[in-house]
């Protein structure tokens, strides 16, 4: 599905230079909290600049229909705050603790936004200039941390879920991806009863995946669109088709099957954010 809003951002660079969150947002890097008894965070900024590179369009004659694609440049998260301690010696120890924690590259950076934690892989890129000695005091010192985001997007850690129980027919339903980029769902089907069932399909738009396996009572079928794996009772099985994805906004999905069944269905996913 073509995203016109994202296209306009890419084409006309309509992306703000800096976005900020409130100082109350929690932030943790590799298990090291930047909000504790010794540290306060005054601002978390996102130096994203013109983060969308020029879009490219594939040839519809050679690439089965053509599709606009875009690539996002790495972004910088800037954290400003203040570290304090009971004494100058304790402050120096706390400074060393921060440098050790931030000196480990490619760790999870967790930031709480609107009550939910968003996680991205990141590395600190200004380890040698974290603290401003120009404003050095005996028991406190300001700091500025620059994290380079090395993952494509941030994943919200709370999984979204939609489920239905005791279905006896195929269904067509809608689900909303409230993130800012596409995401890959996980589909689970538990068959309370099943007779004469050997074909099950799940699809979103033109992306449909089909399983041609005999399904019996008690079987659990899982379609993991993120890891591109289909399992029946936890064992990998063959499939055909293309793994569906959830575009930003409202998506319509369809389940079809043969035979006589009673099954429970769930679809879950993570919201992803630029």
Protein described:
This protein is 9% helix and 47% strand. The chain contains two helices and 23 strands. The strands form four sheets. Strands 1, 2, 3, 4, 7, 8, 9, 10, 11 and 23 form a ten-stranded antiparallel beta sheet that branches. The chain has a six-stranded antiparallel beta sheet with strand order 12-22-14-17-18-19, with no helix packed on it. A hairpin with a 2-residue loop joins strand 2 (27-29) and strand 3. The longest helix is centred in the middle third of the chain and has 15 residues, at 88-102. The protein starts with a helix and ends with a strand.
- The total number of structural domains is 2
The top-level CATH class of the largest domain is Mainly Beta
- Class derived from helix and strand content: mainly beta
State which percent range the strand residues make up: over 45%
How is the secondary structure organized here?
Elements lengths: L3 H9 L5 E4 L5 E3 L2 E2 L5 E9 L8 E2 L10 E2 L6 E9 L3 H15 L4 E7 L2 E9 L15 E10 L4 E3 L3 E8 L3 E7 L8 E10 L4 E5 L2 E5 L8 E5 L4 E4 L2 E2 L3 E2 L7 E9 L2 E10 L2 E2 L1
Antiparallel strand pairs: 1-4, 2-3, 2-8, 4-7, 5-6, 7-10, 8-9, 9-10, 9-11, 11-23, 12-22, 13-21, 14-17, 14-22, 15-16, 15-21, 16-20, 17-18, 18-19
